[in-house]
Amino acid sequence: MGREFSTVGVVGLGTMGAGIVEVFARNGIDVVAVEISAPALERGRATLKGSTDRAVAKGKLAEADRDALHERVHFAVGLDALHSVDLVIEAVPEHLDLKQRIFAELDRVCRPETILATNTSSLSVTEISVATSRPNQVIGIHFFNPAPVMKLVEVVRTVVTAPEVVADVEALCARLGKVDVTINDRAGFIANALLFGYLNHAVGMFESHYATREDIDAAMKLGCGLPMGPLALMDLIGLDTAYEILDTMYRRGGRDRRHAPVPLLKQMVTAGLLGRKSGRGFYTYERPGSPVVVPDEATPLATDGALADGARAIAKVGVVGSGTMATGIIEVFAKAGYEVVSVTRGMEKSAKVCEAVKTSLNKGVVRGKLAEADRDAALGRISWSATLDHLADVDLVVEAVVEELSVKKALFASLDEICKPGVVLATTTSSLPVIDVAMATQRPADVVGLHFFNPAPVMPLVEVVRTIRTSPEATATARAVCAALGKTGVVCGDRSGFIVNALLFPYLNDAVKMLEASYSTADDIDHAMKLGCGYPMGPFELLDVVGLDVSLAIQRELYLELREPGFAPAPLLEHLVTAGYLGRKTRRGFRDHSHR
Ligand SMILES: NC(=O)c1ccc[n+]([C@@H]2O[C@H](COP(=O)([O-])OP(=O)(O)OC[C@H]3O[C@@H](n4cnc5c(N)ncnc54)[C@H](O)[C@@H]3O)[C@@H](O)[C@H]2O)c1
Questions:
Q1: Angstrom distance (rounded) from CA 333 to CA 479
Q2: Which residues of the chain, if any, have pLDDT below 50?
């Protein structure tokens, strides 16, 4: 028989603590909720009330259940109130000395059999445990933010944590309706070890004006299906907490430069810009604690579809290429009402592309998403050609030929000779420097990257890449075209991986390194990212879908361009590719797909 937890204590009622109190009280467990001072206690009480009131308003909690929940919570200032609880969870700020002091005090106050748990994100549970006389009863119970919503709990055992304590805590997590992964005591555990390098990198992009906060966040939401962008997530976590986590991970986790907090973070924390909890971080909120973003001086002006910033009018578009991307892009432009000239390397190829576009449009009709008349009109707007000369009078060219620099450069040199002045020339490259392509022409100011995602008709994001030679008018034109296509165009600089791949692939590579180090299993890592961070797929699921060879190639490019040691491809990824395990397409990658 495992141990019964009828009363638990929670120390610190900030961003996490208040949510943890709610989780326990919702599940019928009495809670003693402790803070350092009366005002802090009131703030914690208000947070709990706000959260449960919102749940009632949304119909997720009955009023009577809310009232019963509140009756289960006893608020107190000071740790002495915890003398008879069965378990304590500490959720005070992320400082080792503070946590050690609190654990020494808890050890004195609590009954000898009480389990003492920390919600730390990055500190050593072992180091916290040795501040007590019962390290075998000390454990990490790492909830995710917001605690009442996120399903995952990381249970962290140290080398001395008693196995029955681990088992009892696992059973408790199940009672709370959570999914737990049990792991050893390592900086950042699973989820934060994979998350914080990415978050810090995103802050670095923002700090260096590589892209705006809105564009960085939109890119990751729309390009990867994440529930929120990295900067909005930093605001939710709290910039002071995020700073401490990064700093600890840097010092504990092998001094990986990617965890050295970007200088801007420290400045924001010092300036009191802590994120949602202080009402301002990367974004500005209605009031402290509110999730509602309000416009501020950095908010872009809404253009309501009008041609902003000297954007040029585009009516006729040339698309060069006959592959998956070109086919999708032709469809997207034709459906949005543009005249499209498709150019391939021969009429046979054109016929194939034409068939593919028809098939895709027909699917839209069958699914009731496209009227037959609209399908016919879209097809009627496309002309098929095998010579670039037909691009003499288009307003925009989108190149989507093979990913080889020499081929693209030769093509752009020809376009330069054929196209009229003022035309915007766009490349869909996902890995080559756009400036190389631009310099193959005499008009680099008119050259941009338009990085569509696959499948182009479905994916809502386009990265608009501006080189150091691209004119503001060409950038504005590209962005306006994306809006007219019903897509979100995010503008970024001309660096390897643009926004999405530069932020996504190092994270995937880190997951492979974690697996390689035998810290956890592919299943647990996938679980952690899905249930702890709300990702639509875990890293290994995604790697198998994208293809391990493609992922390795992108990671190599990033490593070569940015020379960041932490970006070096994981040896395991290289070995799997060498072995021909490329993911779903070869029926075997990180997982065996032969029976599915
Ligand atoms: N913010 C997140 O997204 C997140 C997620 C998971 C885990 N964590 C971890 O949870 C812990 C708390 O982080 P947070 O973001 O909730 O911090 P926070 O700053 O929002 O809240 C900390 C609270 O602790 C209180 N406190 C300080 N000293 C105290 C004391 N001596 N006794 C009682 N209460 C005291 C403060 O008054 C404050 O209300 C940290 O270890 C953090 O790493 C945070």
A1: 14
A2: 304-305
